[in-house]
Amino acid sequence: MRIFLAPMEGVVDHHLRNLMRRIGGIDICVTEFVRVTDHVLPRKVFTRYSPELVDVASQQDNQRCPTRVQLLGSNPEAIAANARKAARLGAPGIDLNFGCPAKTVNKNRGGACLLDEPNTLYEIVSQTRRAVQKDVPVTAKIRLGYQDRSSYLENAQAIYEAGATELVVHARSKTDGYKPPAYWEYLAKIRETIDIPVVANGEIWSLQDYQRCKQVSGCQDVMLGRGLLAKPDLALAIKAYEAGRQYQDMGWSQVAAILLEFFEITCQVYAKKYTGNRLKQWLFYLKRQYPEANTLFEKIKREREYEVLRNAVAAYL
Ligand SMILES: Cc1cc2nc3c(=O)[nH]c(=O)nc-3n(C[C@H](O)[C@H](O)[C@H](O)COP(=O)(O)O)c2cc1C
Question: Selecting from 1.20.225, 3.40.50, 2.160.20, 3.30.160, what CATH number does the domain 252-314 have?
Fold first, then answer.
């Protein structure tokens, strides 16, 4: 089975991907969405979203755990042309975003609103498929529908017939938002209908959630987003379970060491006024799993000083 690290705009950038790859258990990453309108984007846009394309050290990672480039838009020709460019730059896969619920994105006919237009999904996927070499996977990520969950099979079928390599399904409609539960049972129906791998996504926070998701959906592969941020070794725990191995969960001091490394990296790349923002953002997710993360968050939530923030995290090592 494979574990995908979910694309998360503004959260899962290449720094976080690199750390997650090092922690282990994940097999495939996806960039944050790259918005496509009607023209071919310059190279620097692709390398900004996916520094893995140009960074020599990351290129090895990209072979072991490839980072697919995610495109978002509604113009099939433009998406196909950008997919071709990304693939020529070395992208090891193209993912198409048909799940984003953001109002600004949907207003411009991008993301989840296209779930009301199966013909457009078909056009985007088929033109993208034709635009890149056969050995480059073209995948799609959908929700179960836009206003409701009635269109899921029709959309899955359209994407399949258009030649997608695999389909990731966030098991909720756009209207369902992020409110639990995730409707994993719909994925079983999709699996019965199409003949490509279906990757289950949504509300997998623990090994037990994974086990239930697998049982209900029948999916081999899963995509983990917030669950992996809340418990950075969740993929390792799942892989150990699948291999029949005992697994010792990562303790808070190990997580704090990773967090400190992340903090140092972000201090190098962001302007001083943003010091600590990314650290606090990750702590927000970690709070769900580790009480210490909540204590730390409360302690530093208004802090901006490098030394104070650093010492607060280092105190847990
Ligand atoms: C802050 C945030 C940003 C996201 N950005 C993207 C994105 O750029 N592309 C995408 O396909 N999905 C995006 N998603 C959706 C996630 O990939 C995933 O489908 C969703 O969080 C459900 O999975 P989870 O319960 O494992 O988190 C985002 C979700 C969140 C919370």
Answer: 1.20.225
227 pocket-lining for ligand 1 (C-beta < 6 Å):
yes
Residues near 248 by beta carbon (within 8 Å), at least 6 away in sequence: none
Of 29, 65, 100, 219, which is the active-site residue?
100
In which residue are the tokens 């072979």 written?
63
Q: What is the pLDDT along the chain (317 residues), one digit of tens a residue?
A: 999 999 999 999 999 999 999 999 999 999 999 999 999 999 999 999 999 999 877 777 777 899 999 999 999 999 999 999 999 999 999 999 999 999 999 999 999 999 999 999 999 999 999 999 999 999 999 999 999 999 999 999 999 999 999 999 999 999 999 999 999 999 999 999 999 999 999 999 999 999 999 999 999 999 999 999 999 999 999 999 999 999 999 999 999 999 999 999 999 999 998 999 999 999 999 999 999 999 999 999 999 999 999 999 999 99
Choice from 8, 183, 231 to test ligand 1 binding pocket (greatest atom count within 8 A of CB) = 8
Return phi, psi of residue 131, to 5°.
-80, -20
Let me know if 65 is a catalytic residue.
Answer: no
Is-contact 217 185, C-beta < 8 A?
A: yes
Q: 28 pairs with which residues across the strands?
A: 4
* 201 touches ligand 1 (CB under 6 Å): yes
Instruction: Quote the ligand 1 centre to 204 CA distance (angstroms).
Output: 12
Query: For 3-242, which CATH class?
Result: alpha beta
Provide the residue ranges of all domains of the chain, joining segments of one domain with +. Answer: 3-242, 252-314
